[in-house]
Amino acid sequence: MMSLKTFATITAGATLAVLMACGGGGGGSKSSPTVYVAGRCNYIEYNNDNAGWVHGATQWINGSRIILDTRPDESGGEPADHAFARSIFVSGNDVYVAGNTGLWKNGVKQTISNPGEYTSVCASGNSVYLVGTYTTSGRTRAAMWKDGIRTELTTEEPNIDSYADSVHVSGNDVYVAGYVGGGNTRAVLWINGIYSQVGDYGTTGSSVFVSDSKVYVAGMHNTGGRSRATLWTDGVQQYLNNEPSNGGSAANSVYVSAGKVHVAGTETWREQNTSKTRARLWIDGISQDLEYASDGSAANSVYVSGDDVYVAGSESAPNYQNAAYWKNGKMFRLTRNWTASYSMGADAFSIFIK
């Protein structure tokens, strides 16, 4: 395992071209950008007068919804059994979406040997990179698929589970953030397949970004019985909320543009014996307001295009949950409020602007 000192030395000496980075560049047209979002929709489908829930991996392009994959819920299964689209990336004219049931290119599901459940996708040059997990011998293993070929992301502890949640390519270097462990996790980072531990016990890594020879990992640290939104810069830990909220917080996505570090996440607190969650955006560690229209909200992904900051997530109320995104703090719903008799649940997990 690399030490954090070695980790910082390697990254400082690397040639890291942000404009070539997966998720980097922010090169969309400022006048009329295209907004790409990946997530999930739960809806009711009627067949011969029989209603059943369908859980769909979903893509939105400028608000137009495309269901990529569905998985009917015949027995009230848990959300992990449903179809989700976790990540979206655009390269040239091609749109890539990764989820727990597959990879889609321009809406067409791709065939991958030795498949798994995918959490993040990006394209660089002529190659497509996927990360996620697969199961072998009763263990969950972090892995990367480059052009469909799977490589296990190894750790120093083969008898514990490992997870890969985010991939970023800069120049010739491939960065993957994730975590190891079950009940007592640790945030980790792989650089070109070489493993290093980023955080202490109780931490997870959710997102990685590289800019100006610095490596940023966003995640959380469970300490004192509560989680805290956390950012590591070249391995140095920073809490994003000055004081831990009484319900906890988490950092889900990081994006650096023009020297500013943008982090999207959530913060939870208790109010009159009820837990409420609110979407958060931190810019250089300072919390920013996002439009708050209902009982709860969450921020899962952040992307910067020119002077505009986009955040993808959800808003919720007792009878519905909408997928949504924010542009410079203003909310745009991708789904609309549905009544309790025709309930719809939706989330936006990833956003890309071009």
Q: Can you describe this structure?
A:
It is a single chain. The protein is mostly beta strands and about 350 residues long. It has one domain: Methylamine Dehydrogenase, Chain H, CATH 2.130.10. It contains one helix and 28 strands. It has one helix at about 5-15; strands spanning about 35-45, 50-60, 65-70, 85-90, 95-100, 100-105, 110, 115-125, 125-135, 140-145, 150, 160-170, 175-180, 185-190, 195-200, 205-210, 215-225, 225-235, 235-240, 250-255, 260-270, 275-285, 285-290, 295-305, 310-315, 320-325, 330-335, 345-354. The strands form seven sheets. The chain has a four-stranded antiparallel β-sheet, with no helix packed on it. A hairpin with a 2-residue loop joins β1 (about 35-45) and β2. It is globular and about 45 Å long. The two termini are about 35 Å apart. Mean pLDDT is about 85; it is low at about 1-20, about 25-30 and about 340-345.
Chart the SSEs and their pairings.
Elements lengths: L3 H10 L21 E13 L2 E12 L2 E9 L12 E7 L2 E6 L2 E4 L2 E2 L7 E8 L2 E10 L2 E8 L2 E4 L9 E9 L2 E8 L5 E6 L2 E8 L1 E9 L2 E10 L2 E8 L2 E4 L8 E10 L2 E12 L2 E10 L2 E3 L7 E10 L2 E10 L2 E8 L2 E4 L11 E9 L1
- β-strand number: 28
Supply the number of helical segments: 1
Oligomeric organization of the protein chains:
single chain
Give the distance, in angstroms, between the N- and C-terminal Cα atoms. 37 Å
Helix content: under 10%
Shape: globular
Mean pLDDT equals: 85
The largest sheet is: 4 strands, antiparallel
Radius of gyration: 19 Å
What CATH architecture do you see? 7 Propeller
Task: Report the sheet-strand fraction.
Answer: over 45%
Q: Name the poorly predicted regions.
A: 1-21, 23-30, 338-343
Q: Reading side by side through the largest sheet, how are the strands ordered?
A: 3-2-1-28
Reading the helices and strands in chain order gives HEEEEEEEEEEEEEEEEEEEEEEEEEEEE
Q: By helix and strand content, what is the structural category?
A: mainly beta
Write down the CATH topology. Methylamine Dehydrogenase, Chain H
Overall number of structural domains: 1
Return the CATH class: Mainly Beta
